[in-house]
Amino acid sequence: MEKEVLILTGAGQIGMAIARRMGYGKKIVIGDKSIKNAQAIEKIMNEAGFDATAWETDISSCRSIRSLVEEAKKWGEIAMLVNAAGVSPSQAPIETILKVDLYGTAALLEEVGKVIKPGGVGVTISSQSGFRMPALTAEEDALLATTSSESLLALDILQPENIHDTLHAYQLAKRCNEKRVMAEAVVWGKRGARINAIAPGIIVTPLAIDEFNGPRGDFYKNMFAQCPAGRPGTADEVANVAELLMSDKGAFITGSTFLIDGGATSSYFYDL
């Protein structure tokens, strides 16, 4: 019997937390570059009563994304997308960050947007980093928003000589995520579907722990220590926002990015 399908990309704590909120009664297809990681999440979810299957997926490859979408279509109509795939500034070089976090998200939203069912919905995980970089020009924003995914990495703004370091690349990627979600909301809307982004701050996950132990570790620890909330967040707190956005209560919300960072961005700019 066919079921509605939820595609989850990125076999990590945030993606799994959201899938546990929204994936009951659905077929959950988990895509991750590491099939072992995808299978680990598959096992956890199936043992909790869900219906999940793992699929090796590299979102830096459009061919791999299309393979994931075709696998998902075998199980039924694609009703939901949760994109939690990504790498951090301490985990990867500039080129990889741009291919995964920037290009990969753009390509995934394009491909799923072609097949998402009417009434379908998606969330993609961005980052507070997109809010910290100085404003781009209106033309640069428009190019990040609307350039076809296959041409994105050829933009002048994304050339190596214009990117200072891995953190700058990450900030550009996350700014692009926000702009892509705005543009894709128009495309998805023509199918009667919605897409939004969530921009978390410091959320305790293996990725965050890599950052804590990386070259900017002291900066990140101080960030959440000094923010109004006074602590890092949890994957379930991100899932709280995703549940709103992906449920009928969020029916009038699309094309938006929701910052959930305990006030860290506010503190960054306006700590008086």
Characterize the structure shown:
The protein is 49% helix and 14% strand. It is an alpha/beta fold. The protein has one domain (5-265): Rossmann fold (3-Layer(aba) Sandwich), CATH 3.40.50. The protein has a seven-stranded parallel beta sheet, with helices on both faces.
What is the domain tally?
Answer: 1
Approximate helicity band: 40-55%
Alpha carbon gap, first and last residue: 59 Å
The arrangement of helices and strands along the chain is: EHEHEHEHEHHHHEHHHEH
Q: Mean of residue pLDDT?
A: 94
CATH topology: Rossmann fold
- What percent strand? 5-15%
Summarize the helices and strands and which ones pair or pack:
Layout: E1 5-9, H1 13-22, E2 27-32, H2 35-47, E3 51-56, H3 62-75, E4 78-83, H4 94-113, E5 121-125, H5 129-132, H6 138-146, H7 149-152, H8 166-189, E6 194-200, H9 206-212, H10 217-226, H11 235-246, E7 257-260, H12 264-270
Parallel strand pairs: 1-2, 1-4, 2-3, 4-5, 5-6, 6-7
Helix pairs in contact: 1-11, 3-4, 4-8, 6-8
Key features of this structure:
272 residues; alpha/beta; Rossmann fold; 7 strands; globular
Q: How would you concisely characterize the structure shown here?
A:
The protein has 272 residues and is α/β, with parallel strands linked by helices. It is 49% helix and 14% strand. Helix 4 links the parallel strand 4 and strand 5.
